[in-house]
Amino acid sequence: MKKLLAYISLFGIAFLLHSCTKAESVFTETLPETISVTSDATNVIAGTSITFTVKSSIKNEIVTGASKLNINGTVITGNTYTFPQAGTFAVFASKGSLNSNVISINVTANTSLAASFVSRVLVEDFSGTWCGNCPAILYGVDLLHKQTDKAIVVSGHLFNGDPFITSQGNSLAALLGITSVPSGKINRTTSWIGPQYENVPQVINQIKPTAPLGLAINSAVSGSTLNATVTVSYGQPLSGNAKLTVYIVEDKLLHTQANYSATLYSGQASIPNFEYNGVIRSIASNLSGDAIASNGTAVTKTYSMALPSNISNPANVRLVAFITNEAGTVINVQHAKLGTTKNLEIL
């Protein structure tokens, strides 16, 4: 009997220990993860950018980079968004199968919008590393940048196996009627008269005191995918159709440049490690632009594509976005480094 009682006692103790361990396990079990979204403002005027932050319930960790933001049913690029027009916007975040709380952003009309935006001029130049006459336009671009910060230059390289040739650059040249180098177009429709370095004022004179529309650019790279959002805001409506064109360009590309000039670049017949900027690597939009609304409303357009394989260094990449009117003339242009946000430039 004593042995039986002892056995029962030991069994009871073991049972209690097992029950306690199981209870502790239940008590310390991790709760399911949830996420929440917050913003740095909830009441703004049109044309203002807001940055959103997403946090996980696990250790209050910031998981913005692993989440997607949804604004009025549309997933945006990155975590900063420029609200182009008045209205109430519902914003929530998602991470895998998780959805966050919904926050409301109230955007009021910008009464200064009827004013206008900073005006910039677009130059598309075409040259070749092999072309001894091309320093005329290359030096012209150098002088242009020294005289104004409101000129945005993109460069296409053509012919003779140039190392920076792209099929889209060739197609662009054909679209613009470029058959020889050096050649340049100002705001898409005006030829830059050569020698271009003697005609820099021709470009500067195209910069207006104000522009009737502005552009904001936001972009990010996720793995090998480039995501970009371009917002176009109108201070005044355009007459007729409008198109948005987006270039992907790269700066700080080096190569030897041929030079026939006895005076430009110290008269070097062959210029080593010449630096080329704004070189067209790809075109995110249609070659002739994507049709967008042109009167009274702001437009946001999103692009997603593989990062072009011909890019040497993503840190040197910019996006160039511009609007053309029905006649094909550039109304305004903007640029921004890859992975950054450029807000509307309202005067």
Protein topology:
Layout: H1 2-27, E1 35-39, E2 43-45, E3 48-56, E4 68-71, E5 74-75, E6 80-83, E7 87-95, E8 98-99, E9 103-108, E10 121-127, H2 135-147, E11 151-157, H3 167-176, E12 183-186, E13 190-191, H4 200-204, E14 213-222, E15 225-234, E16 242-250, E17 253-258, E18 270-276, E19 279-283, E20 290-292, E21 299-306, E22 317-324, E23 330-337, E24 341-342
Parallel strand pairs: 2-9, 10-11
Antiparallel strand pairs: 1-3, 3-6, 4-5, 4-7, 7-8, 7-9, 10-12, 12-13, 14-15, 14-24, 15-21, 16-19, 16-20, 16-22, 17-18, 22-23
List how many beta strands DSSP finds.
24
User: What amount of the residues lies in strands?
Assistant: 35-45%
What's the shape?
Answer: globular
In angstroms, what separates the terminal alpha carbons? 98 Å
Radius of gyration: 29 Å
Enumerate how many helices there are, as a single number: 4
Low-confidence stretches: 1-28
Structural class: alpha+beta
Order of helices and strands: HEEEEEEEEEEHEHEEHEEEEEEEEEEE
